[in-house]
Amino acid sequence: MQRVQRDLNRFRQIVRGQIKKNLRKYMSQGEMIGRQGKRLVSIPLPQIDIPRFRFGSKQAGGVGQGEGEVGDPIARGDPQEGEGQAGSEPGEHIIEVDITLEELAQILGEELELPRIEPKGSKKNIVSEKAKYTRIRRVGPDSLRHFKRTYKEALRRQISSGLYDPHNPVIIPIHDDVRYRSWKETPVPESNAIIIYMMDVSGSMGREQKDLVRNTAFWIETWLRSQYKQIEIRYIVHDAAAKEVDKETFYHIREGGGTRISSAYKLCDKIINERYPPTDWNIYPFHFSDGDNWGDGDTEICLKLLETELLPKSNLFCYGQVRSMYGSGSFLYELQQHFEDDDLLATSEIARHEDIYDAIKSFLGKGK
Q1: Which of 119, 232, 295, 358 has the highest Cβ tally under 10 A?
Q2: Within 13 A of 220's CA, how many CA atoms are on the CB side?
Q3: Beta pairing partners, 235
Q4: CB 192, CB 123: distance < 8 Å
């Protein structure tokens, strides 16, 4: 069993190494999202396929099971013409390895050198008690009896009293030898977080842009879930007007209309004020748009909302500007100029899937 465990641990280290080596590729291609189950993700990794015998039913046909008589030659006849030439290179075989989201988050943090998040304000003082079985005591229920410690106590007693016979090493515990596992309650910080995703769904935001948002959001959630005991997620879509929707609608709603970013920021602020007081929640708004905002001073309204309402209430506000088929607007530039030295705002341009890796590091690398 020890050898099997060593081999298993070595295999898991190889898997971790492969994931870290190809993490940028996974993040850019979104291969993991379609393989996500309950707390598990299937990772496609190259492998060597070892040939092996395969047994099938007798009705499946094959040598000795088809038409013909004993002694008939096999595979003789006119050669048939085919297309192309025989290949000389081996094929690449794929194995899917399950990994927990917690372990994936750990790999993400190691590779991107993400600092652990410290909850802000009074939220870091919310604690709960967690029991760990780290103690041994003389009384307890039979279900918690510690066999190894009981055996050691009986052995120690028999040796010290001269009852131990090395030629007949029978160890019989008595009542005073029995030991039981016991627990110790330790305080554990219990912090909650709310993620508010906002996405521009105007006419310039197509399917490719939504895929960029979906892939980026997967990695954001993977990391933040490893940092907080409880995560809630809310979704807002906006064109010229904003509304709260469910996850399915958020990623599949059809695009159309103009863009008024301030409508999303006003709705985000309303949701925070009504449901998630900043004294009890760690708040993470993420906004994705192509940056082409409607005129008539709407960008100035957004900057004012961020400065006076959203940033003071948030652990971190992140803006990702994706590139649409019509190019990108100037909203990213306006944010960077206005909040040049503000640590509560993180921005990134996500023009292609390859940019997701750098966007996640920019968003989450501050440890807010």
Answers
A1: 119
A2: 29
A3: 197, 245
A4: yes
CA–CA separation, 21 vs 25, rounded Å? 9
Q: Can you read off the two tokens belonging to residue 86?
A: 């025989």
Which residues make Cβ contacts (< 8 Å) with residue 366, sequence separation at least 6? 115, 316, 343, 346
User: Is the whole-model pTM more than 0.85?
Assistant: no
SS3 label, residue 352: coil
What residue spans of 97-144 are helical by DSSP H? 101-112
Cβ-based neighbour number of residue 354 at 10 Å:
13
Distance CA 357, CA 368 (A): 18
Task: Give the pLDDT mean for 190-202.
Answer: 87
Q: Are strands 40-47 and 93-100 parallel, antiparallel or unpaired?
A: antiparallel
Q: Which two tokens stand for residue 276?
A: 């998630």
- In Å, what is the CA distance from 127 to each residue of 120, 191, 283? 14, 8, 18
Terminal Cα-to-Cα distance of the chain (whole angstroms): 44
Determine the residue type at 194: I
Tell me: pLDDT of 368 over 90: no
In this prediction, residue 353 has a pLDDT band, given cuts at 50, 70 and 90, of: confident
Q: Per-residue pLDDT averaged across 344-353, rounded?
A: 92
CA distance 46 to 153: 51
The domains located in the chain, with CATH, are 1-48+94-113 (no CATH), 128-187 (no CATH), 191-364 (3.40.50.410)
- Cα 316 to Cα 286: distance, rounded to the nearest angstrom: 9
Alpha-carbon distance of 22 to 41, in angstroms, equals 15
What's the pLDDT tens digit per position in 173-182?
998 999 999 8
Strands (E), the chain: 40-47, 93-100, 127-137, 180-189, 192-200, 230-238, 242-245, 282-289, 317-322, 345-350
259 φ/ψ angles, rounded to the nearest 5 degrees: -130, 125
- DSSP category for residue 36: B
Residue 171 in tokens: 């160890």
Contact indicator for 346, 317 with CB cutoff of 8 Å: yes
- pLDDT number for residue 111: 79
